[in-house]
Design a protein that fits this description.
Blueprint (H helix, E strand, L loop, with lengths): L4 H16 L4 H8 L3 H8 L7 H11 L4 H13 L5 H9 L2 E6 L10 H11 L4 H14 L10 E7 L1 H4 L5 H14 L5 E6 L13 E5 L5 E6 L4 E4 L2 H17 L3 H14 L2
Parallel strand pairs: 1-2, 2-3
Antiparallel strand pairs: 1-4, 4-5, 5-6
Helix pairs in contact: 1-5, 2-3, 4-5, 7-8, 10-12
Length: 266
């Protein structure tokens, strides 16, 4: 990401605004409660700015949200190329139907859980990994916007039992799921282990309903993900979704199971 146009734009505008305010890197760092080393790294394009850092810089430098607007575009650039189209669809969707047999869906992950997944399964490391973790967490803003999509997420019970990141991470993650289930537009369902074999075990997928009423889907694999818009393929996934949903517990029963599983992670 270093050297990309958006990184250079952000770094340049931060340097310009700081200079216009008559502040040294050390003085700005003191005002925003971050280290001077981090300010220097961001201005040199070696570190990507986090949301809170950016907001504090906007406030301290009186830039009227300019840095935050640049960072919003920068966060999209950080996304893996094949995922950018789906994030755009996700942000505009009126409804999302998600199924995950292995891990907590990205929109519902805590930062610690997302980081643990990357540590255990991603080829990325260091700053590159942190960029992806940050991008994943920022995507979740779609659930808290003025007109959020309705999200119906189904997970396999094994997702609640898989020790991603250890007991503390899992306990916090499952408590987070229980809290999200109280939002009026978020509905969580769990397929109990007793069900045995069912269609969803063939793999995870998400179906998004666009503002014009069309359905579009997303599939992931070991190499990359891709958007599915071919009518018959989308219809097949919708039918699989209906089969999966039919095997799941009710929202209330699922929340009870999630809370029970959270208490078991001690």
């Amino acid at each position: 990401m270093a050297g990309s146009p958006m990184v250079e734009l952000f770094a340049g505008e931060l340097r310009r605004a700081r200079g216009a305010a008559g502040l040294s890197q050390e003085a700005l760092a003191q005002q925003i409660s971050y280290s001077a080393a981090l300010v220097a790294a961001v201005e040199q394009g070696r570190r990507l700015p986090r949301p809170e850092f950016t907001t504090r810089c906007d406030e301290a430098l009186g830039t009227d949200g300019l840095l935050s607007r640049i960072r919003e575009k920068l966060s999209r650039e950080v996304l893996l190329p094949w995922f950018r189209e789906w994030v755009r669809i996700e942000q505009e969707a009126t409804a999302l139907r998600s199924y995950q047999p292995l891990v907590v869906p990205g929109l519902l992950q805590t930062e610690e859980y997302a980081r643990a997944l990357h540590v255990g399964a991603s080829p990325l490391a260091g700053e590159a990994m942190e960029q992806q973790v940050t991008a994943r967490i920022e995507r979740q803003a779609v659930l808290h916007q003025a007109s959020p999509p309705q999200l119906v997420a189904v997970v396999d019970e094994y997702v609640l039992r898989r020790p991603v990141g250890g007991a503390d991470v899992m306990r916090a993650q499952l408590r987070h799921l229980a809290e999200l289930s109280r939002l009026h537009h978020v509905h969580l369902h769990v397929v109990p282990a007793a069900v045995g074999s069912y269609p969803g075990l063939n793999g995870a997928f998400v179906v998004a309903t666009t503002p014009d009423g069309d359905d579009v889907a997303y599939l992931d694999n070991q190499l990359q993900g891709h958007v599915v818009s071919h009518g018959p393929d989308v219809l097949s996934l919708v039918r699989t979704w209906e089969s999966v949903r039919a095997e799941a517990l009710s929202a209330r029963q699922s929340t009870e199971l999630i809370e029970e599983a959270a208490q078991a992670w001690t």
